[in-house]
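can u pls check wat happens w/ L-homoserine
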Amino acid sequence: MKQIGVGILGFGTVGAGVAEGLLRNRQVMAERLGVDVVLRRIADIDVTTDRGVAVDASMLTTDAMAVINDAGVHIVVELIGGTGIAKTLVLAALNAGKPVVTANKKLLAECGDEIFDVAEKNGVDVYFGASVGGGIPIIRVLREGLAGNEIQSIHGILNGTCNYILTRMEHEGLPFDAVLADAQRAGYAEANPGLDIDGFDTAHKASILASLAYGFHVPMDKVLVEGIRNLSGMDVKFAAEFGYRIKLLAVVKREGPEIEVRVHPTLVPLSHMLASVNHVFNAAMVHGDLSGDTLYYGRGAGREPTASTVIGDIGDVARNLAAGRSRYARGVSVANDGKFAMRAPSEVASKYYIRLMVLDKAGALGIMATILGKHGVSVLAATQKACEEEEEMPGYVPIVMLTHTAKGADMDAALRDILTAGVVNEPPVSLRMI
Ligand code: HSE
């Protein structure tokens, strides 16, 4: 049986999981793939810490280039993360004619053009299955399983940290700050949680999924991003009273030649399957023109789930190399060939939940309704709510409205006018609905 050698760059949580999985399941993989995948080298700046996996000391080095240039290493696995040294090493591996497997969503979302360009020039593959959804092989679904479909939409819960926080806010009636602090203590959230809670981690993943669905690199600056940092427990509670659960959703949607890619807290009806995805779990619902709705669910992070997807990619590349195919999985084109246009966020239309702290006086509601009507925003339901004691504002009452579909620009203009009309005492809250 042909042997294919693997070199790992980065011996952290996922690197150790991949090393362990490759060693533990070598025989199973050989039986399935018809190729013997052999772990040959591992590079990390720290080769002394115990990673909980028994590897031969001769495998370890602090010199990443020695791994890339090792003649016995046929596949380079980048698990360092970020766009610094990881990018330099990925480019070095591709220029050395070696296929790369990576879990680095930031690198692909921010430098995808360059990476795919260099891979193309060198005729080698870049596999990035674990960059989105951890243990869920969603990238492979888009590349292969649904390759015969026009992808009409993807709705994803792609960040476990945010989903964990939102689940606890709703289930335990806790405010955002308290759950975040608790999640940090329990190790579910980073000490610097901005990438997760401000939506950028999800946006990186949405950009990758959109690029795969539509075949061109969707740059991050075309993605509308809103996080959950300012989400109030009051809105989580009111949404639940209306029969909705708030999720940080990645939405990728095509309408004719226009593509929307956005990330924001979203009201999802409790009857929707994504509303049942709780705690640290991730899920993606993909609608293809032939398949209809399909749903993928699993652990979006963690040592073993992420290693599972990385190893799946390694297996695919190994099988291709053994069969003499060096470039099997086409990357994403660098340029949009003009077939698609990105829809401007102001043009994106959704149904909305809006909450306003309204002056408790005759006529206030009428003024707001007139302003909404003037901007073409049609109200579907409106209710006056009761606040918890600590949220009360004397003289003002919370009014929640659900609207029919409205354009972002129209909603923003209406809320700006309401704010200056003297009937509310703080900026209105607006959240999109699925
Ligand atoms: N920080 C991510 C999350 C995991 O919380 O889901 C890595 O993509």
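The mean pLDDT is 94.
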